[in-house]
Input
Amino acid sequence: MMKSICLSLLFLCVISCKKEVKNLPEDFDFGNTKDNTYTNAYFGLTFNYPEAWYQQSKHDIKAITDKGEKYLARENTKMGSILKASQINTAYLFSLFKYPVKEPQGYNASLSVIAENVGGNPKITRGRDYLFNSRELLKETPAGFEFEEDFDTKTLGGKTFDVMRAKATFGGYPVNQEFYSIVRYGFSLSFILSYTNEEEKAVLHEIIDSIDLE
Output
């Protein structure tokens, strides 16, 4: 299971760049799912996802992040500490896997949607600011990330997201990752796509192409 989980969790390490930590509001909107559609009223966000893939509940996501924290603490004490601190102001809004996470499979392609409170950091004004910080920290992790040199942009839901692409080797699997990020209402809103082949990539791109942002 950890083969597919930790690459998404590593993205949380960007939190350590902040000097000021801001907690999530008590009434933070994690969104809702119904009929294979995710909706978040605060961000004005909706998107569709395939019925054949497996959405994780809040309980499942908490169990996954706990396992990821222990893994990173074991592999790299610094990264484990950063991840633990990051959970104060970072929220997993949605997590989707190709296979049930408890089933023995190869690499498990996934989509993660993460929001982070960046209101206390005036240097983060758009997605690429957030991605730049995360890229430097991800280079320190055991996944052996190789990043495309330049950031890209993509219009999703009528809004411009900054895009970072990377390759990594994890558990013996060569994995592709795409990070889409935008700063919206005081939060970074990020979509993380992880896949190993073109078929998985096509499914994940169909999901993000369905994004609607009010």
